[in-house]
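S.,

Sequence below, as promised.
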Amino acid sequence: MAKATATARTNVAPIDPVTANVIQGALENIAVEMGYKLMRMSYSSIIRESEDFGAAIIDTQARQLCESKQSTPLQSGPIPGYVRGMLRLFEERGEAINPGDVIIHNSAYHGASHGPDVAFIVPVFHKEQIVGYSVTTAHHLDIGALSPGSCGIVDAMDAYAEGLQFKALKAYDQGRRNEALWHILRDNIRASDLVVGDMEAQVAAARIGAERYLELIERYGLATVQAASEELMNYSERLMRQAIEALPDGGYAAEGFVDGFQDDPDRRDFKIAVTVTVKGSDLTVDLSGTAKQCDDRPINMPLEGTVDCAIWLTIRSILLDSDVYGHIPQNSGLIRPIEIVAPKGTLANPIFPAPTIARFVPGNIVADTLMRALTQAVPKQVSAGVGNLKVIAFSGIKNGQHWVHMDIHEGSYGGRYGKDAMDAVDTLYANTRNNPIEDIESHLPLRVSRYELRDDAAAAGRWRGGIGSVREVTFLEDSFISVEGDGHKFEPWGFDGGANGRTASLVYHQADGADLDLPSMMPNRAVRAGERLTLTGTCGGGYGDPLERAPEEVLQDVLDGYISAASAHRDYGVVIGGAMALDKAATAKARKARQAKAPQNARS
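The prediction came back faster than expected:
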């Protein structure tokens, strides 16, 4: 049984709150500057447009002091684990970290989220002593796996089939570029100019972070910066403990399911089991009961780097809502009260060399299932079921050179108390932006002929569920696609009387006119010029009894295309006349009849 816990507090001299807050602002600005530098220097749209990267300053105990606000939780969240894994490997090998070193690291069994999320770590030295680490992470569009791209590789049989593994290697050794390693990168990665260019941007951004952190130390003194950092982590911990302490003590459980490979009866319908135990100001998340690891398919999730981040993000978002608490220092203090338990050999804590590259969608189910468990403790602070995402990897060869593009097809949120859900957005720990159509069409042999919200698809509820989008892509040249997704079988759950959401679909329109339904997980497949792909996103669940939604709001939903007039009548008991006007008398009659049947239906 493996556990993931936060590092402990350190005793340092007290510091006044004004100085601590000034240093907090300086630390956050360092991380933000690192993020903007990386975005502006990067070559690929996944970093430049989607912002699928992370930047953070880490202390000598591998505790996060700050993170870039532009980055995604699944990039910045694992960074302390990257550093812990690097330090563990250096200790095992008896290697030293020196001034001028830059370390590349992506081992999913040493803290990394998965192989394509590569970190560059720059140690910060002050008076010949390591005082911290400046780290950037980013998702790279190819990492030399068995097929093009870095997502959609759903048929990797083990970790070795997932691409290059960098286990804390020195990209720069005491300031000298390790040319052999960079040659290996260029020789084994498709679209190497793009990918290696992004990596060099990461190095530059991490070095900037190291310079700024050193400037901060030289300005205030090392002892003051360390004292401020400790106080900020203690403050974040106090807030989290207070929020946990407000929960009723007890256990709260839920189950969720991952599509898996629907065309394979032995590799589908993977269960995620979550039990939350609250005792005072401590909270334990136990994943016992989760499905066993999939030995030869890459949907296993690293406990450190994916599962822990999904859990920490969900708890922080629910218990310390920014709308209520405002700005909170994002650091390792937030996770100190939280313990994670996951049996080894399960989907949530695999054993090497089980593959992990497609860990994204199962991790989203972990977060969604945890939120479902917490509905029993804080029903007004959660959303209904979330519509999961899918990632399409497009690739091809032109003039002897590979091109690769990763497109994140967004999902949607469920309704929440007091608010309708968000439509067509990246959900939970993804939080990336979509790619503008203009950017796609100007760089790639793809044409986006349709991009719109689903019609008549919002899940009914007092607060309606979010709707996914529909995107149609035409291939202008012979190329390839692969798919890493979820949400084709299991509907997002409705809450407190709200309806379940709607599943997703993926349809391939062949040249002969035939339409082929594709699964949510599909390995690399050749496509032809003129053929098309239609992606339909998942819709989140509804929250609360639909009969409690104001008829005027239902009418507006019809006018906006969220639902049809027929759905308004069927799901809400709202009658809309031929002139698209609300028939108040007929609505009152229809709702009265439904309310009279409700107790009878409840007994059946």
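The first strand starts at residue 2 and ends at 4.

Coffee later?
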